[in-house]
């Protein structure tokens, strides 16, 4: 019987592969990069690659292990899920990390593998697999957030090409992206059926980006403007009018990557556990417990919530692995993950007091300043990718079968 | 759902089918109204014995199938869905105490009978209204003295696994044991049992006591999981048929979001409860944390869902004719049994050095 516990124990058949992975990591992972950040994180923006980082990215890209389960013919690793699991375990064991990431890997690649033509796959997938190219997402518009299907960006048919006009917003990493996968309107007379899935070069004439400064002081997002942008017809993925279903499928890949433990930037999980921070900042009582009893209770509730979430992620992964039918659990991950991220940040700034609200300059530790930014940035997690309210609508209607208001 | 093997899938499906056909909530109502002295239906218990459910955690050499606690939990969950009255949980865990214990005599005398459902056993641990591992009962020269409050299935038990200050003992019903019923809101058997120099066979020390309490707690969580599932789905079904203001209630977003929230909590609850049962089977060293995590979350979640069940049913939720009140009352008892959510949060925190 494959119990949850056995997930951590390798099956014998994978032992040979495990040895191969260990040897390869030993030879290729620069030890100086242990526990470093992923340079391709969309939220943080690109940092200048060090020679070590470039070497590591190129090695993983050449091996195809940055996208371990993608087909070999397009530059993937061609591994089974179980083998990819071994790779993850072995990387985690030595503090190695996947240098290839971003929206191309998480969302666009799997979607294109499913819907793209051979030519489209051959052109785009290998570059994503090698981490040579950055993609951004052109979905939301100022008037189309939660009600995404009301988007207005229009792609006018000009025979062999489209001409795109309109504005996108919340294009994560748009200022650093090479390409954009966008939902555009090709038919104004129908809401959902008038939407198409189009690939746009970010350096094409008529594309402009403008960073959006957030309450955290950072600018990971952009507004993107399209003015008479010429897009060749062969950049259309799927059929005209099929964009909504392709776009929805892409969001499922986003959820999938979230439910397998990806999707959260290392910065959000940075630092010590909440109870350790509480002991440090608030002291302990005679029995060695966190001094403030009421705060301690809330911290314990948070820790338990986090533990139950981790068990649920593992349960969902096991479900997917054993194919005992799709698990409803993946649909709730977004909301629980958001709640836990935000609870943790709120607890941490409360524990740190004024030191947890430092903006910049002297008098604050690096951890404290990071805490302030993480807390503010974290307010986005219950809004982006479908707000908590939208997720609740999805759970109620799709899983519980509750009805639309008439 | 944890990943199950073929035997476990079969066991779960059988238990579900039996609970739905032979032991629906109407069977609980009948039993409540008949109020038999032993607190359970002997016919139903005989069937449970025949199915081998009491033997799921008993070693094969003593007539059990040794499938383990995840398997027992699956059965108890199915019974919990329908509020089925059964001394299964208490008997199975008491049998584990005997099987893990050091007395060969106790194993030979009791395990086969418990595995087949010929006998009923239960745990007698707590001495007051709150779960507490500080035990006052004592044993001198093989005779046990002390009073145990709120012994579940105490009215029908043939044997008691009793906590004394120095460990765990087996006491047969009869000489030196006085059982007095305590009627409680959930209409189930809870007795006060006074031991007055009762002959007692030692099973093990206080480590064994804690190990058994952890198992009993995890099994209670499995019953709570089944109850939460049903309470949730009955409420969801009700919202889909009840019309107000010319609208079916399930079309109102305010209600949809409350249901989505409950569903989310229910998923976390299932993970925590199955995690505790698996930790028992795997013999994990952090079993105490897994159990406390499960009980704290199970108590909070079933509390939420059972209270919302009454509220969302509106006026009819207050009537005895609807099931909401039955889930509410059993829930409150199980929330308290083996320690409340606060008790387990405190235990979890101490185990982690918070």
Write the layout of secondary structure elements.
The complex is a heterodimer of chains A (406) and B (354).
Chain A: H1 15-28, H2 51-63, H3 81-93, H4 103-115, H5 118-129, E1 135-138, E2 154-157, E3 161-168, E4 179-185, E5 195-201, E6 207-212, E7 221-232, E8 236-237, H6 243-259, H7 274-282, H8 293-322, H9 329-352, H10 366-377, H11 388-399
Chain B: H1 6-22, H2 25-34, H3 42-51, H4 69-81, H5 88-100, H6 104-116, E1 121-124, E2 138-140, E3 143-152, E4 159-164, E5 167-172, E6 177-181, E7 190-199, E8 201-204, H7 206-241, E9 243-244, E10 247-248, H8 253-282, H9 287-313, H10 324-336, H11 341-351
Parallel strand pairs in B: 1-4
Antiparallel strand pairs in B: 2-3, 3-7, 4-5, 5-8, 6-7, 9-10
Helix pairs in contact in B: 1-4, 4-7, 5-6, 5-7, 7-8, 7-9, 7-10, 8-9, 9-10, 9-11
The low-confidence runs of chain A, each spanning 5 or more residues with pLDDT under 50, are 1-10, 259-270
Shape of chain A from CA axes? globular
- Biggest sheet strand order of chain B reads 1-4-5-8
What is the helix/strand order of chain B? HHHHHHEEEEEEEEHEEHHHH
| Helix residue percentage of chain A | 40-55%
User: Which strand order spans the largest sheet of chain A, edge to edge or round the barrel?
Assistant: 1-4-5-8
Sheet with the most strands, sense and barrel status of chain A: 4 strands, mixed
- Averaged pLDDT of chain A, please? 86
Our Rg estimate of chain B from Cα atoms comes to 20 Å
Tell me the structural class of chain A: alpha+beta
Q: Summarize the amount of helix of chain B as a percent range.
A: 40-55%
Count of DSSP helices of chain B? 11
Give a quick account of the main beta sheet of chain B: strands, pairing sense, barrel closure.
4 strands, mixed
Oligomeric nature of the chains: heterodimer
Unreliable stretches covering 5 or more consecutive residues of chain B: none
Q: C-alpha Rg of chain A, in Å?
A: 23 Å
Shape of chain B: globular
In sequence order, what are the helices and strands of chain A, one letter per element?
HHHHHEEEEEEEEHHHHHH
């Amino acid at each position: 019987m494959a119990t949850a516990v056995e997930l951590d124990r390798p099956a014998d058949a994978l032992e040979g592969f495990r040895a191969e992975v260990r040897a390869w990591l030993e030879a290729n992972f620069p030890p100086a990069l242990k526990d470093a950040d992923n340079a391709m994180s969309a939220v943080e923006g690109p940092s200048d690659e060090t020679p070590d980082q470039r070497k590591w990215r190129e090695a993983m890209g050449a091996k195809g292990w940055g996208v371990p389960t993608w087909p070999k013919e397009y530059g993937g690793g061609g591994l089974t899920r179980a083998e990819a699991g071994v790779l993850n375990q072995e990387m985690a064991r030595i503090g190695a990390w996947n240098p290839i990431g971003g929206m191309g890997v998480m969302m666009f690649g799997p979607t294109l593998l499913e819907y793209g033509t051979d030519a489209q796959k051959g052109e785009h997938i290998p570059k994503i697999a090698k981490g040579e190219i950055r993609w951004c997402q052109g979905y939301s518009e100022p008037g189309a957030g939660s009600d995404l299907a009301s988007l207005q960006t229009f792609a006018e048919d000009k025979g062999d090409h489209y001409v795109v006009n309109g504005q996108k917003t919340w294009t994560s990493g748009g200022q650093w992206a090479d390409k954009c996968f966008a939902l555009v309107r090709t038919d104004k007379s129908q809401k959902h059926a008038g939407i198409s899935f189009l690939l746009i070069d970010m350096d094409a004439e008529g594309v402009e980006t403008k960073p959006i400064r957030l309450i955290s002081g950072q600018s990971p997002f952009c507004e993107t403007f399209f003015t008479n942008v010429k897009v060749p017809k062969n950049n259309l993925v799927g059929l005209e009018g099929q964009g909504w279903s392709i776009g929805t499928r892409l969001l499922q890949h986003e959820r999938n990557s979230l439910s397998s433990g990806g999707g959260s930037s290392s910065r959000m999980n940075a630092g010590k556990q909440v109870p350790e921070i509480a002991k440090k900042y608030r002291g302990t009582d005679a029995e060695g417990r966190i001094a403030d009893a009421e705060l301690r209770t809330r911290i314990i509730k948070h820790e338990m919530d986090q533990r139950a979430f981790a068990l649920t992620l593992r349960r969902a992964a096991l479900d997917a692995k054993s194919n005992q039918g799709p698990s409803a659990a993946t649909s709730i991950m977004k909301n629980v993950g958001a709640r836990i991220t935000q609870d943790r940040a709120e607890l941490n700034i409360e524990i740190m007091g004024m030191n947890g609200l430092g903006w910049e300059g002297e008098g604050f530790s690096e951890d404290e300043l990071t805490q302030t930014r993480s807390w503010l940035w974290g307010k986005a997690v219950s809004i982006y990718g479908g707000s908590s309210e939208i997720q609740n609508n999805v759970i109620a209607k799709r899983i519980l079968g509750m009805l639309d208001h008439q | 759902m944890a990943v199950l093997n073929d035997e476990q899938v079969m066991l779960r499906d059988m238990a579900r089918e039996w609970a739905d056909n032979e032991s629906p909530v109407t069977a609980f109502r009948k039993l409540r109204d008949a109020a038999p002295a032993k607190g359970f239906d002997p016919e139903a218990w005989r069937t449970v014995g025949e199915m081998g459910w009491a033997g799921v955690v008993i070693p094969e050499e003593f007539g059990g199938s040794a499938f383990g606690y995840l398997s027992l939990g699956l059965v108890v969950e199915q019974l919990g869905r329908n509020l089925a009255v059964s001394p299964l949980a208490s008997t199975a865990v008491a049998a584990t105490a005997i099987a893990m214990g050091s007395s060969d005599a106790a194993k030979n005398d009791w395990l086969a009978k418990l595995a087949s459902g010929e006998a009923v056993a239960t745990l007698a641990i707590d001495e007051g209204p709150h779960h507490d591992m500080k035990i006052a009962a004592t044993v001198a020269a093989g005779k046990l003295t002390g009073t145990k409050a709120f012994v579940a299935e105490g009215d029908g038990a043939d044997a008691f696994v009793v906590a004394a200050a120095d460990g765990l003992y087996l006491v047969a019903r009869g000489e030196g044991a006085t059982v007095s019923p305590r009627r409680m809101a959930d209409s189930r058997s809870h007795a006060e049992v006074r031991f007055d120099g009762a002959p007692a066979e030692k099973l093990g020390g206080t480590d064994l006591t804690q190990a058994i309490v952890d198992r009993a707690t995890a099994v209670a969580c499995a019953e709570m999981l089944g109850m939460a599932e049903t309470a949730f789905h009955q409420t969801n079904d009700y919202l889909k048929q009840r019309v107000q203001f010319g609208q079916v209630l399930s079309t109102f977003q305010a209600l949809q979001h409350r249901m989505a929230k409950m569903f989310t909590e229910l998923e976390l609850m299932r993970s925590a409860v199955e995690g505790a049962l698996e930790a028992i089977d795997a013999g994990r060293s952090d079993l105490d944390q897994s159990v406390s995590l499960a009980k704290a979350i199970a108590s909070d979640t079933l509390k939420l869902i059972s209270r919302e069940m009454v509220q969302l049913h509106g006026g009819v939720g207050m009537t005895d004719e609807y099931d909401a009140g039955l889930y509410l009352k059993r829930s409150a008892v199980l929330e308290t049994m083996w320690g409340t959510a606060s008790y387990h949060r405190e235990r979890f925190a101490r185990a982690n050095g918070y």
